[in-house]
Amino acid sequence: MKKVKDIQFARDLLINEMDLPSEITSKLLNYDIEVTSGEPDTLIDRGSNIVYQNPSSIANFLFHLMYRLLQKYLDKEVLKDKLGLGLLSLCQKYVYNDPETEKFNGPPILVSFEKTAIPKFIISELLEPLTGKIKRLPIFYIRDNSLDICEVVNRQEDLIKWYNLPRHSVPFTDFPIIVTNLSINNHASRMSSILTLVLGEHFGENRAKTIIKTILLDETSGLTEHLMTLLYMLTGDDQFVIDFMNYLLTYVSLSEEEVNRSFGLMEKAIEANHSLNHIKLAWPDGGQKQRVNKQWSQWSMMMGLIEKQLTPMRGSMWPATENLKPIEDQRRKVMSEHEKEKGSQLNFEEMLEIARDEYDHNARPGTLIENMLKDNRVWKA
Fold it and tell me: How buried is 255 (Cβ within 10 angstroms: 0-12 exposed, 13-18 middle, 19+ buried)?
């Protein structure tokens, strides 16, 4: 049995993406989750714990679990629909973020910690000069339908029992080891989880959290800038850097003031380092800048997702397109101007950034286009 707070996707969703009161967030994070056999994807909510029977995939496990936990706090069906669509988008992004991981097919495989470049370099180049030698753990890669991303296993018997593995598939090794789920193709999630588990196993959970807080909050050491620079040098991926830092934030319990301090240090690191200064940082609510990625209810509005899904159900005479045309024309005009300045076609992220800029987040926050236009629809009989 595990708790919701042990699931990295759940922590990230509740802390970084939802605007729930702190007491509700704390309650949800402390729910017990038990995975058993039975009818596929059947959930039994017992008030303080949820029994999940036979997950059919890790994506279904994460989606159905979080939807069951969150939907009880919504009293309107339309809000539940929005939650479902937004949650589905976030879940798919989390699970299928890095499709190249699909190349890891076949039986479980055990690798040395030294082969995981990002946690290895963070520990050897950033932390060990300050803390002394840190014990590394072997990494055991498997595919599983209920393991969020990574977990420490202390005994071979537990490994075989928990993941239903044949004994011959488990190589001889010293325990503990870190079990990593390759059914989740999210590199930033995997690397941040491996790092926190190694620190927790070596120092204990409390001191590990203190070390991570020092990285995120210390204004004199420059650790935030060093970490972000190292991440970018190893990956060359802006989004990876931001995702990794966000996942790291969920591992420790920070107050609103501490979160804003951490984002302030990240912004200073971005401004001070030439290799980072093109990264756009999204501030949390209440910070100095409006956050742009905490808007699952606005995502489908920008992308027209629901409108596209409803197209087959509409009649041929649907005058609402007239209301959308000025907005779409303006967005296309701005994109065309950016393409001329760039000298080439815009990529998806650049188009999404323009869509964010064109959308007035303060006008009707959380209101979807399909709600604004519902009076203009003509539905098929």
Answer: exposed
Structure tokens at 108: 């479980």
CA 280 to chain centroid, in Å, comes to 17
Distance CA 52, CA 7 (A): 14
Give the global pTM.
0.71
Distance CA 358, CA 333 (A): 11
What is the spatial distance between Cα 285 and Cα 260, in angstroms, rounded to a whole number?
A: 9
pLDDT at site 1: 77
Euclidean distance between CA atoms 318 and 325, whole angstroms: 13
Residue indicated by tokens 């979807």 = 368
Contact 199, 133 (CB under 8 A): no
Please tell me the distance from the alpha carbon of residue 372 to that of residue 327, in angstroms, as a whole number.
Answer: 13
State whether residue 360 is helix, strand or coil.
coil
* CA distances for 275 relative to 222, 230, 261, 270, angstroms: 16, 10, 22, 8
Distance CA 31, CA 215 (A): 29
Tokens 């080891």, residue?
177
- Terminal Cα distance for the chain, rounded: 49
Of 8-17, 46-55, 187-196, which one has max mean pLDDT?
Answer: 187-196
CB 4 within 8 A of CB 10: yes
One-letter amino acid for residue 364 of the chain: R
Sign of CA dihedral 286, 291, 294, 297: positive
Best-predicted range by mean pLDDT (20-24, 176-180, 295-299, 349-353)? 176-180
Q: What is the pLDDT of residues 367-379, one digit of tens each?
A: 555 555 554 544 4
168 secondary structure, DSSP code = G
- Is the Cα torsion angle 45, 84, 75, 360 positive or negative in sign? positive
Using the predicted structure, report yes or no on whether residue 355 has a pLDDT greater than 70. Answer: yes
